[in-house]
Amino acid sequence: MTRPISLAPLTVLELDPAEMVECAAQAGFDAVGLRLIRATDAEPLRPTIGMTPLIRETRRRLDDTGLALIDIEVLRLTPQTRIRRDFAAFVETGAYLGASQILVTGNDPDHARLADNLGELADLAADYALAANLEPMPWTDVANLQQGAAIVARCGHPNVGLLVDALHYDRALNTPADLAALPSDWFRYVQICDGVPERPTTVEALRYQGRNARLFPGAGNIDLVGMLRALPRDVPVSVEAPVLWQASALDRSRAALCGAREVLDLADADCRHLA
């Protein structure tokens, strides 16, 4: 079975969105994800909201390459968030580019308020044919799959999904059984990478590994095959694999895609065997 494989922004964070589309196409990806709002102050500040020249050029390259745009990122839901005031222009920009998914992080310890804001974001996104996807991360207020699932269930909105990142899933000691117990329609896409066997023991180390020191799919010890088998068989796969390797963005992208294809071949072969 074939399914779309997308290049995630964190894998080649030095590239702007237009450059990233070109890189993903040259590397052989089917799709791409784009970071329109930076995740840290250390990242370059680029004109990526609204009809800027960079955004228009990115749309042109998407059209020229034929790549799909899976997701745009990253929206943080905080206690101060006001959905339409803060995120309307972001959602409009994503719709102009042709995105279908929004990556959302939970940075609010009040999970009831977080669920309410997630639902309001889902309403706004639905107006533009996008969906909101909550990603559990160990350094946020939604630290694991169980907390994410509880918030999505509490939200109860049909336009909300749960985004599983392989590294965070593994570091939280989640299992394929945990995934299989959840509604399949919650999963709109999945992020994969690999990791070293030793799990970090501090939040700072988890954050550093997540942003800088992952491994390409198949190069570590995360049970990616088991994880993928527990998810819908046609779910798009985004390869989020920032690695400590001084190679070009194109070479890193090609290596990431090669690893992802090998892992997906194993997962899909196992699925055919079980069928």
TrEMBL record:
Lineage at the top is: Bacteria, Bacillati, Actinomycetota, Actinomycetes, Mycobacteriales
Q: Which Pfam families match?
A: AP_endonuc_2
Keywords assigned: Isomerase
Keyword Isomerase attached: yes
Please provide, alphabetically and separated by semicolons, the GO molecular function terms listed in this UniProt record: isomerase activity
Chain ranges of the Xylose isomerase-like TIM barrel domain: 23-241
| Protein name per Swiss-Prot or TrEMBL | Xylose isomerase
| Family matches, as SUPFAM superfamilies | Xylose isomerase-like (SSF51658)
